[in-house]
Structure formats: structure tokens, C-alpha cells
Amino acid sequence: MGKSAKFLLTGDPGQVDLPRHTISGLKEALLVLKDVDGVGMVYLDEKDVIRHKLVKKIISAYKSIENID
Hints:
By secondary structure, the chain is mostly helical. It has two helices and no strands.
């Protein structure tokens, strides 16, 4: 990793196939690195979808149950 190197990681924190109450590496990284100077995070949601309107509705439907345990 050189001085001018840049990295881009992508992922969907909602797409986890781990056992319940097990934090994914991506979710852990988001928590641990959120206040690190030089690390930026961009969150996309249904407003960023430029496909069919049905795709937006599906994303919204899943987002509405995201925090239900």
C-alpha cells in the first residue's frame, strides 16, 4: 500500500448468512472504522436505485424489516 494508494470496498451489510447475533466482518469494520481519519463511508439506499420501480419497492420492503429480531 503506497502513500497515494486508494481502496474501495463494497458490500451489503444486510446480506448476512451468519448465525443470529454474530456480527459480520463488514458490519464490524463499519463500526470500528467509522471515526478513523482518512476512512470514508458512503451509504446507498432505495433513492440510489435507477432501475425498475419494483426494485425500489423491494429494497424498501426489506429495509422495513432490517432491524426486526
